[in-house]
Amino acid sequence: MVIFRVILVLLAFMVVLVLAITNSSTTTNAVVFTKVYTNVPVAFVMLYAFAFGALCVGIFSVVSEIQLRSRLYRQKKAQDALMEELRALRNAPLEGEYPPRPTPEQPESPDGGGQ
Questions:
Q1: Would the pTM count as exceeding 0.70?
Q2: What is the DSSP string of 39-90?
Q3: pLDDT for res 112
Q4: Any idea where the domains of the chain sit in the sequence?
């Protein structure tokens, strides 16, 4: 999957490069926020737009990766806690003894009755 992404990014970069070369002699006016740039080659406008888009995607990817890793860390901690609980239950002693010991005989009372 990573190789597919790399190939896709390289292909997109090649398309932008080909378009930039074909439009290298064309100039335009570019407005960035409130600043106006005159006689800017279209190739530069395309290159900066591509770079800005790649930067935005990179930032969103990093944020998503951080969220996924933190979720994975929390789930691993929960899994470790559950495994520790399971291990404790497996090693817990059983109530009573096995096999049960016979109860000691009660001596009979002197009057001949049981208890």
A1: no
A2: EEEHHHHHHHHHHHHHHHHHHHHHHHHHHHHHHHHHHHHHHHHHHHHHHHHH
A3: 59
A4: 2-89
